[in-house]
Design goal:
This protein is mainly alpha-helical and 271 residues long. 75% of the residues lie in helices and 0% in strands. α2 runs parallel beside α11 and α7 packs across α11. The protein is globular, with a radius of gyration of 21 Å.
Length: 271
Amino acid sequence: MSKEQAAGVQGGNVGESGAARSARVAGVRVAGVRVAGASAVVCALMFFLIASMWHVGGVLLYALPVFIVAVAGVAAWLFPAELYTPTPHASRIAAVAMSLAGVIAALIAAEQHFGAALFMLMSALIAGGFLFEMLRKERTQLIESLANIILMGTLGLASSGWMVARFARAAGLAISTTAFVAIIAFIVIGILCISLSVGAWSRDAVRASQAGGSGVKAPQAGEQSSDGKANEASQQTEEARNLSPVWRYAGLAAMLSGILPLMIFLISFIV
């Protein structure tokens, strides 16, 4: 076996030349960097928009719940869940439902009870995920399906963390200069961590896509199943694999960014 063939086998594609493999690896790396950059922009944009609503107050602050749920809905719709779970619609519904539930909890719960409300909603998400799996007609790939329902639901719940702006305005946000600088540093580090995490995730997805695989064992085109939807599932998986991952993954950063103000809010009860 030649060196080029050996390189191809090591890269997962028999017969792939060293130059082709290098180009493929470079493409995967560039895709991850682009998603990381887009995720950082999305996180910063969320902070800017929420801060604008907080500063203006009044009617705009009441639009905050609608804005948060809408962002969660768009992000869940963009995310290529077909690559990871046989129940992509359930994952998207979980994200929007938990975002809505978290927003409602923030509206009706007292400030000191918001954290407890989120914990209860997280417990309900896990219980609901198990119940959904038990009620499925074809209980295949249970782990993949349940994991993605909990993942997307958790991200939706994290997005409701932006509702602490309501509590912050009510409290007047009286903080010292040192605390303000510490919060800004925490936010910057948090944005970097989120963008790097989402970028790494998308990079792995692109690598798996180029290798011709995914987390879902989708039926081949023309293959029949008991519910008659094999072709549709295969087509959805292929479409999700071929679309650009930049904004499809960066949307997750918009939901995940809500965990930063939420953590600042929860820590304020400790210190």
